Amino acid sequence: MNDLVARLWRSIGGSVQWRLLWLSQAKFMVGVTGIVRDGDGRVLLLRHRLWPEGRQWGLPTGGAMKGETFQETVVREVREETGLKVRVGELVQLKSGYRLRVEVAYEAEFTGGTMKIDPKEILEARWFAPDDLPEGTLESHRLLIFGKAG
């Protein structure tokens, strides 16, 4: 029986195989976070308009777009939310997150630009020393800042 299934699978061709797999597999959203640091070791935090009251401070974060690398997502999200430019560094987290969401996080280095927040999404953006993060910073983002992400 296994040989028959294997022969059938191989005979249907790549595009049909892909569609069958697509239909039968879970679909995931990908959330990408940038841990942006400046030359003094401070970290960029944003107070997000759409996040729950009391937990609005966090790192630049957004969804990956179709055809975009995760590094490109970090660059785009930081630019859209703050107007700043960054160079993406090391991957520090790749895990399945809440429900059907994959969480990806990269270190990133501030390289220039002038702070200009997107008021539709961001209430405030500031640089913080890691040992002086504001009240209401997401715990998962605190862990990323201190390199203790799970």
Q: Topology, please?
A:
Blueprint: H1 2-11, H2 14-24, E1 29-37, E2 43-48, E3 57-58, E4 61-63, H3 70-82, E5 85-96, E6 101-112, E7 122-128, H4 139-145
Parallel strand pairs: 1-6
Antiparallel strand pairs: 1-4, 2-3, 2-7, 5-6
Family: Belongs to the Nudix hydrolase family.
Pfam family, one: NUDIX
Protein name: NUDIX domain-containing protein
What is the helix tally? 4
Oligomeric composition of the shown chains: single chain
Report the β-strand fraction as a percent range. 25-35%
Low-confidence stretches at least 5 residues in length (pLDDT < 50)?
A: none
Tell me, what's the shape?
elongated
Q: Give a count of the beta strands, DSSP E runs of length 2 or more.
A: 7
Name the average pLDDT: 91
Structural class comes to: alpha+beta
Please summarize the sheet with the most strands.
Answer: 4 strands, mixed
Name the helicity range.
Answer: 25-40%
Estimated radius of gyration = 19 Å
Order of helices and strands: HHEEEEHEEEH
End-to-end Cα distance, whole Å, is 42 Å
Strand arrangement in the largest pleated sheet? 4-1-6-5
Cofactor: Mg(2+)
Protein name: NUDIX domain-containing protein
Pfam families: NUDIX (PF00293)
InterPro entries: Nudix_hydrolase (IPR020476), NUDIX_hydrolase-like_dom_sf (IPR015797), NUDIX_hydrolase_CS (IPR020084), NUDIX_hydrolase_dom (IPR000086)
Briefly, what is this?
With about 150 residues, the chain is an alpha+beta fold.
